[in-house]
Amino acid sequence: MSAAPRVEFRVGVADPLGYCCGLLRAADAKGARTVVCVPEAWLDELDQRLWTFSQPDFLAHCRVGEPLEARSPIVLSERADVRGLQGRDCLVNLGTEEVLGWRQLPRVIELVGADAPAKAAARQRFRMYRSAGCEPHNVEP
What is the CATH number of domain 6-138? Predict the structure, then answer.
């Protein structure tokens, strides 16, 4: 049996999409292969930001189901389900619900906004991870 994933919560993020771009830049620099679960309402904006986030740092990415998915270091998904994805090191969740298949990844990062509904949903996910045998860590954003 494989080790439980390392689960991190970064709570009170004022600009979740901007923070996510910085996080993905750091992960990409380390050679990580990341999947980002992002609410459909934010998908186009995150996609655009990754193209324009930083001139010197091109963040190659695609959406789930696109032809380059297997080779892309960053894959964006509007679905909270990563069970069909292979070869990923890390899940970044921008959504408010549990991501199906999270246990198959060695690392999970939950980015939580500063608003009350996002925090309430994060508390539920925190309890879910604990009940699944993980000990989530809070990391300052």
Answer: 3.40.50.10110
